[in-house]
Design brief:
By secondary structure, this protein is an alpha/beta fold. It is built from 13 helices and 22 strands. The strands form 6 sheets. It has an 8-stranded mixed β-sheet, with helices on both faces. Strand 14 and strand 15 form a beta hairpin. It starts with a helix and ends in a 5-residue tail after the last helix.
């Protein structure tokens, strides 16, 4: 009798899990319902917000996970996933919806790993950056012979070739001593990009994102910057050539984390291509100008990689469960990578937060800045580094820091205001009158209310 009861309970559990997880494609209305379903099931750790609208007026919805949704907690890093940038590359869209359901359900079940992740990280999930393109592709479905149908937005523009080209400026600055981070945008940038691109740019300028991944399809590989080759054009095309960032080793590690946690990406042989370890520098694969991952690195504090997740851009519905199982652990492990390197507060002598302070690492020609709350995050591999914090009107402070392989090292900076130097003088001879001197030019739930009152909404 006890054996029959055990079998019955096991079948009941399987039925419950099957009811919770639905492996199917989601049109725009279905996507909205799914997001609100997750939010209704986990209202205290989720928030839904829109970053803008598509050409045809569809919202670009983001689902946020945090123990204090809508609030930036100092020293808690922000991370994002972006899916369906190309409308006909749909697996990322479905994986992010499944991930949202998974995070909610596992948090409710008391999964310690997921609870720790949500309480220590602010996670933003944009399932579809190109909802208009998706609807075009979805009409054709998995068996479409139109390989590019629905790829672009409703204006026929490839959104991953639509961001301001900052690589050209950086490659010039790198040789001539110009800025190595937060490169400025052209004055007319808003008129040069599509509504979806403009929404994403304003989004990533509004949050101090630290880590990101952009989910695509058509190959199986983790692609890291730079995407645009430094080589000169030949017959209208840029030569493919490995074009590393100053953080190349770190980017390789981030890409390998996803590849080796994935069910088969790490094997290298996929879709008729071979990529050692399942990773590639973007420009060594093919050169891409005005892409999103390079833009993140050159204009913000965010380190983004591009994940190509399926040979078939629009996989059949019956393939979705296998793809989810192959990507689930990798999606979680990649989020956890935001917790490495160093982080801390940049304060003045009176313990006021210093926003926009520059954090420099000796030997790595790429700086990051502190956010509006004075906190900064610098992803680094294990090792010993010389770190300098600087801000206009303050004396810089330099420390030596040893970074381990586990949690990030907490390194705070207290900058002192610069003391004006006495104006240097020089003597100028004056005939007959001697010389005259001229100047030379996650708390526990019980403490939730107190903790929220200390924070400002963002």
């Amino acid at each position: 009798m006890s054996g029959l009861l055990s079998v019955f309970l096991h079948l009941l559990l399987l039925f419950k899990l099957a009811a919770l997880v639905t492996f199917r494609h989601h049109h725009y209305d279905d996507l909205m319902r799914m997001l609100y379903k997750v939010h209704n099931e986990c209202p205290y750790i989720t928030r839904i917000y829109s970053i803008g609208r598509s050409v045809k007026g569809r919202h670009l919805y983001v689902l946020e996970f945090s123990d204090y949704p809508g609030i930036h907690e100092p020293l808690e890093p922000e991370v994002k996933y972006v899916g369906n940038m190309h409308g006909n590359e749909v697996l990322g869209r479905e994986l992010l919806l499944q991930l949202s359901e998974f995070l909610c359900e596992e948090f409710r079940n008391g999964n310690q790993r997921i609870t720790r992740l949500i309480e220590g990280t602010r996670i933003h999930i944009l399932p579809s950056m190109n909802p208009d393109g998706y609807e075009v592709a979805a009409v054709q479905g998995p068996d479409s012979s139109g390989y590019l149908l629905g790829r672009n937005n409703a204006n026929g523009v490839d959104l991953n070739r639509n961001f301001p080209d900052l690589n050209t400026y950086f490659y010039y600055d790198e040789k001539n001593g110009g800025p190595n981070h937060h490169l400025p945008l052209p004055d007319n940038w808003k008129s040069q990009v599509e509504p979806e691109t403009r929404a994403v740019i304003q989004w990533i300028r509004s949050f101090n994102f630290v880590l990101s991944a952009n989910l695509h399809g058509g190959a199986v590989v983790a692609n890291y910057p730079y995407d645009k080759s430094l080589e000169h054009r030949v017959q209208g095309f840029r030569r493919t050539a490995n074009t590393p960032t100053p953080d190349d080793k770190l980017f390789q590690k981030l890409a390998k984390v996803y590849s080796y946690a994935h069910g088969w990406m790490y094997q290298g042989w996929n879709c008729g291509d071979y990529f050692p370890d399942g990773i590639t520098n973007g420009a060594s694969w093919y050169s891409l100008s005005k892409g999103m991952q390079d833009f993140n690195y050159l204009h913000t504090n965010c380190f983004e990689i591009t994940l190509e997740l399926s040979c078939n851009k629009f996989p059949r519905q019956e393939e979705l469960q296998r793809e989810w199982l192959g990507n689930r652990e990798a999606l979680i492990q990649f989020l956890e990578q935001v917790h490495q390197g160093i982080k801390g507060m940049v304060l003045d002598e009176n313990y006021n937060n210093l926003a926009g302070a520059v954090i420099s690492i000796s030997g790595i020609n790429h700086d990051v800045t502190s956010g509006d709350h004075g906190d900064y995050f610098r992803l680094l591999l294990p090792g010993t580094y010389t770190v300098t914090a600087s801000a206009p009107g303050f004396d810089p402070e330099t420390v030596s820091v040893t970074v381990g392989p586990a949690e990030p090292k907490l390194v705070d900076f207290h900058l002192k205001r610069s003391v004006p130097q006495a104006t240097p003088t020089r003597r100028v001879p004056n005939k007959g009158h001697g010389g005259r001197v001229f100047p030379k030019k996650v708390q526990p739930p019980a403490t939730r209310k107190t903790k929220v009152e200390k924070k400002q909404p963002q």
